[in-house]
Structure formats: structure tokens, C-alpha cells
Design a protein that fits this description.
binds guanosine-5'-diphosphate, 6-stranded mixed beta sheet, GMP Synthetase, Chain A, domain 3, 7-stranded mixed beta sheet, 14 helices, single chain, about 450 residues, alpha/beta, Rossmann fold, 3 domains
Amino acid sequence: MPKPVLAIVGRPNVGKSTIFNRIVGERIAIVEDKPGVTRDRIYSSAEWLNHEFHVIDTGGIEMNEEPLMVQMRQQAELAIEEADVICFVVNGREGMTGADEEVAQILYRSKKPVVLAVNKIDDPTMHDRLYEFYSLGVGDPFPISGSHGIGLGDLLDQVAEHFPKDKEEDYDEDTVRISLIGRPNVGKSSLVNAILGEERVIVSDIPGTTRDAIDTPFEKDGQDYVVIDTAGMRKKGKVYESTEKYSVLRALRAIERSDVVLMVINAEEGIIEQDKKIAGYAHEAGRAIIIVVNKWDVIEKDDKTMKNFEQKIRDEFLYLDYAPILFLSAKTKRRMHNLLPMVNKVSEIHNMRVPTHVLNDLIVDAVTMNPAPTDSGGKRLRINYATQVAVAPPTFVLFVNDPELMHFSYRRFLENKIRDTFDFTGTPIRIIARKKND
Ligand code: GDP
Ligand code: GDP
């Protein structure tokens, strides 16, 4: 079931990122257990009571050097497009401004649920600052203090009230959901067309069922797929065009909804920072990942070109060392036939379960050969038992004497051992250390 989305909107300095961090809590730290994963604090999952949802800090999206009002409008429109609920943050210390009124109007017209947070109300004596904000016309103002963590519970209760009740899963479980991620012009649409144009691909004439409505379901050799086309979305709205360079939101949503992410790179241009950021999300989200180097036709090649290019990719995407790389051309169709079989392969692996006894034998061997180092107090990690608790991505829990003793490098060592034994091509794997008696 797709999680609902909360977007935080408001002028610079009203406290959006402070509130975002409060709502997100420690989650970001939890998913991030490898160096090189870009920390980006504009999008994260969060939880309140029994609700899991996504939070977007629209203020974190760089808007180049547009004037404030233009930026505000774009952020508001993005939030309207992407979110189920919008948290509109104003500054209780400064009072209402013209920009607040303008944003309020845009939000009001959208008819999206809005929860109004009056921030920087650090103590109760300031409550009378609330009243002027009633005139924004977007509902009752909630007094909060992001930096002191006051009032957020009530605010989130209100937010959760507005979450859609039943968001149905888009496709049945056996459908392989594929998204194509990458900068404009790398050839995402061309790749989609090339996939759909392949022999024996039967494209469904039922249009996409999600609100994004650019999904293309198809079938090949008895397997159902759907392509989630972020490139198509760009052509849909003006906001998307104007924010294409810096908005990663659509990519993130597509990643969320997919099983297999095709990270598309233009062979001519190579990799840029943005690519790494987006790939980092796919990794953190635990999706299966294939790196697709498109436009391979335009590259002048000798016998080392592919090896060198591959090395460059490995150097840039250190944490994606498990992702297979395909060199192909959507235009000439050269090597296109490798793509769907690779999608099938990584998708299967993404859902692979390893037998508990084999896993435990492997861990015992690894630990015998290379015991965890002792910490400064002379304590050493001991692993009692290991088990796979989830697939997609494969997730392993190790029951240990003290989870604090599980260090990054040792986790990495164990991951490598697991990868040496089982073919986990194309999928991130998670290793969680838990105290033995928990
Ligand atoms: P953003 O630009 O809207 O993301 O705002 P930030 O979260 O970066 O906050 C801007 C400034 O306001 C920072 O100096 C914060 O420490 C401060 N701030 C955020 N929340 C509060 C609050 O509840 N009370 C006070 N007094 N300051 C706050
Ligand atoms: P998107 O923005 O990522 O969806 O990229 P498009 O699919 O719209 O492609 C951008 C441009 O690159 C178009 O002019 C395509 O014809 C061209 N293009 C796409 N794939 C290839 C390829 O494999 N080789 C070459 N030479 N050009 C390509």
C-alpha cells in the first residue's frame, strides 16, 4: 500500500527543516549504514502512532535564484501535486506576511487538506500570536515549537486525520514494477519505448490506475510488468518543467513504488552529483537496482572502453557495488534484449530467501576465520544466531550479545561473506544486530 505523503511548505526560516527533522526523528540515521550514501534531508519516511507516511521538506529543494515569491509558488504547487496533506508553516514571532497570504491562497484553491502550524511559539505566553493567522483562511492554527518539540503531537494527530483512508495497492504482487530514474535527456522515454516495442511485449490498453496515470502495464512471456514513467510526468505539468533540474521528488516517488529501479546514465555525459543522490535513495529504499548506460552507440570504442567506463561507475557509486551494469542503446536497440532478462533476474533475487541453517553455517565460518575485534573495554561481539526476516530487500537479523559492538566494518565483512556465498546481484541487503533476548 503506498504510504501517504505529507509536504511541509512555508517561507525560508520559519522552521521547516527543524520540524521535518523532528517528525522524521532518527529514521534517517537508521537506514544509513554505509558511507557514500548521500544524506539528503528533504524526503524521508516517518511514523506517527500507527501511520507510516512520507515527509517532504519543500524548502530543501533548491530553486536556483528565482525570486522568493516564485520559489514559494513552485514549492506550493509541488506540494499540491505530490502530497496528500500539506503542513503550512508560518512564523509566530514575526507574524503574518504577504508571502504567507499568497501561499495560503494557492493552497486554499487546491482544496488539498492543509494543517497550519504557527512555529516558534516556544512558551504558552505567546499563544495570543495565533489569532491573526485565522485570517489566512486555511483552518485553525496550531501553536508549535519545532526547536523545543512542543505541539507536534497535536499537529501530527491532525495531519493523520487527513490521510486517505484506503489507498489500494496499484498492482498485484506478481507484477514486476520497474521505474527509470535519471536526468532529463538520458533516454528514459526512449528506453521505455524500446522495451514496449520489443517482440512479444503485449502492452495493456488499460491506462495506468494511479493518480499519476503514466504507468504502462505490459506482459511478456507470461510475466506481468509495469513501467512507472517519470519522464512522462515531466511533460505533464509546468511545475515539473521549471523544477526539473533540482526536483528529485518524482524520482523518489517512482522509486518508492517500484521493485526494480533502472538507474539510467547517458554514456556521453557520465555521472553527476544528482545521479548519486537519486541512486542513494534507491539504495536506501532497498530496491533492486540495475545501472543502465544508454546511448552506448555514440561512444567510440576500443577493447578497453567498457571496462574503463565500468570502473568509473564503480568509483562513483561505491555503495552500489552489487548493481549490474548494462551498456546499451535505446536508439539502435543494440543489447536491448539483455534488459528484461536482467530485470527478471534481479527481481527474483530481491525476493530470495536463504535457508537458515546455511546462513548460520556461513556466519559461524566467517566468525571463526575472522572474529570481530574487541572494543576498548575488551568486549567482543558474539553472534548467537542468524535468520532472514524479510525479502525485498533481503534482511538478516543477527542475535548478538551486544548490538553496540557491531561495527560498520564488521557488518560490511559479514555482508561480503553473505554475498560471496549467495548471488545477491542487483539487490541491497540489510543486516540488523539485535540483542539475544529481545
Ligand atoms: P526553514 O528555512 O524553514 O527550513 O527553517 P529552519 O528549520 O532552518 O529554521 C530557521 C531558524 O529558526 C533556525 O535558526 C532554527 O533554529 C529556528 N527555529 C526553528 N524552529 C524554532 C522554534 O520553534 N523556536 C525558535 N525560537 N526558533 C526556531
Ligand atoms: P528522457 O528525457 O530521459 O526521457 O530522454 P529521451 O528518451 O527523451 O531522449 C533524449 C534524446 O536522446 C532524444 O533526442 C533521443 O532520441 C536521444 N536518445 C535516446 N536514446 C538514445 C540512444 O540510445 N542513442 C542515441 N544516440 N540517442 C538516444
